[in-house]
What we know:
By secondary structure, this protein is an alpha/beta fold. The chain has two domains: 5-103 and 238-266, Rossmann fold (3-Layer(aba) Sandwich), CATH 3.40.50.10860; 106-235, NAD(P)-binding Rossmann-like Domain (Rossmann fold), CATH 3.40.50.720. The protein contains eight helices and twelve strands. It has helices spanning 19-29, 46-55, 80-85, 105-115, 132-142, 156-165, 220-226, 237-252; strands spanning 5-11, 34-40, 60-63, 77-78, 90-93, 99-102, 124-128, 148-152, 171-173, 183-186, 209-212, 233-234. The strands form two sheets. It has a six-stranded mixed beta sheet. The radius of gyration is 19 Å and the shape is globular. 41% of the residues are buried. The chain binds 2'-monophosphoadenosine-5'-diphosphate. Residues 129-134, 153-155, 158, 187-190, 193 line the site of 2'-monophosphoadenosine-5'-diphosphate.
Amino acid sequence: MGGQIKLGVIGDPIDHSLSPLIQSKFGEALGLEVDYKAFHVIDRELEKFIESFFADGGHGLNVTLPHKLNCVRFADILSNEVELIGAANTLSKNRNNQIIASSTDGMGFIRDCSEKNIELSDKRILILGAGGASQSIIPSIARMNPAKLMVDNRSPDKIEKLLEKFSSFRLRPFERNHEPIDLVINATSAALSGNFNWNIQSQLNEETVFYDLSYGKAAIEYFSWASKFSDNHFDGIGMLIAQAAYSFELWFDKFPDLSKINLDVLNK
Ligand code: ATR
């Protein structure tokens, strides 16, 4: 690869994206001349943008909301994970110039849990939310053999659809009983309304771990609710970095050494 390597992230909106900062740091650390830009792409320009980005020598793209589902239609090859969840966050190109759609969100979540010593195997896990964010992590968590993997959602009809879609992963609806929940993952956008509350108090205690897939200000409301029960709460900044590292690996066959890359600026 001669000259700068063209990469980017597409979304609508996109101004808030931390991906350019993260991916540029990865490139720097591995001595690659990376030109990673954020592109504001609206839905009706998605196909044209993806096509011309790769036709013009683009090497890889990250995809964020609202295009994670739609971008899959414009890929030639889907990874197994994308086949399962129906959404992608990474596009790359193979030697035959075919576009491959992959999803690294689930792997990113698992890696961050492992870095934070959040155990998943044999644990009772509840995912709140049934949208794209929730779906992107379900297969990866299920593969870790939790004791129970449950989902709850504001709209019950979506729970039914999810159970059907992931029937091979032993996903269950939330069971209201006296069993404590070990890990509660917030995959909803409920906190955007300025308040977070979920009626599961009797199954929470000081050992319960709380994880929010969003980060920074967006996780504040969930944290303030979680703090009533336990001090173990984490936002999704580590997952964001880890999913980015897996995308980088798909493009360059090298996994950035996260312990050596200073991304403290993201915690501000
Ligand atoms: P994403 O891709 O981020 O998952 P999404 O697919 O729009 O976004 O899903 C948003 C999730 O947040 C859904 O589970 C939604 O619940 P509904 O299916 O009932 O809409 C959930 N959500 C959004 N606002 C909420 C609120 N105020 N209270 C509870 N759940 C909420």
